[in-house]
Amino acid sequence: MSDTLNTLENITYDELQEGDSATYVKTLTEDELVLFAAVSGDVNPVHLDAVYAADSSFQVRIAHGMWSGSLISAALATVMPGPGTIYLEQSLTFRRPVKLDDTLTVHLTVLSKGRRNRVTMGCDVRNQNNEQVVSGEAKVIAPTQKMSLSKPSLPRITIER
């Protein structure tokens, strides 16, 4: 019996059906916000400077929109279709800001299956209050070979302030 918490298993193109859905959940921490800024190079002060953000229309620091987008990528890569998925295209509409400590749930739904293992997925991202923060569609090439593998062990990252 495999340890499902430490195992990634894909859903192949043939197994996917229109209407199938899956979710992925993650909470935005201070460290992750800072790391996303460092990795992406997006150091807009609305993300990093509380004094600046207080005078913005949001009044508090907010997440990078693409942090929410990256959760869609993670959901596609690890949940549905999962390992072996090739990301082709993404449309995103940012509906409301994501704030520190918000917990986002990515809802993926298979909208259609096309030729050459192409799948269009509906993407709906909601915060802990069930408010939509992002909507869009992803187009992927779904894997054709069944795959089950151990989640990779990622290095511990520390932030020096």
Descriptive account of the structure:
This protein has 161 residues and is α+β, with helices and mostly antiparallel strands. It is built from four helices and seven strands. Strands 2-4-5-6-3 form a five-stranded antiparallel β-sheet, with helices on one face. A two-stranded antiparallel ribbon has the order 1-7. Strand 4 (103-113) and strand 5 (118-126) form a beta hairpin. The longest helix is centred in the middle third of the chain and has 14 residues, at 65-78. The protein is globular. The mean pLDDT is 95.
Envelope shape: globular
Work out the helix count.
4
- Which class of secondary structure composition applies to the elements? alpha+beta
Element order: H for helix, E for strand? EEHHHHEEEEE
**Residue windows where pLDDT falls under 50 for at least 5 positions:** none
Quick check: average pLDDT?
95
Structure summary, number of beta strands: 7
Oligomeric description of these chains? single chain
Observed structural traits:
32% strand; 161 residues
Helices and strands in order:
Layout: E1 7-9, E2 21-27, H1 30-40, H2 45-48, H3 50-54, H4 65-78, E3 86-94, E4 103-113, E5 118-126, E6 132-141, E7 148-150
Antiparallel strand pairs: 1-7, 2-4, 3-6, 4-5, 5-6
Quick structural overview:
The chain is α+β, with helices and mostly antiparallel strands and 161 residues long.
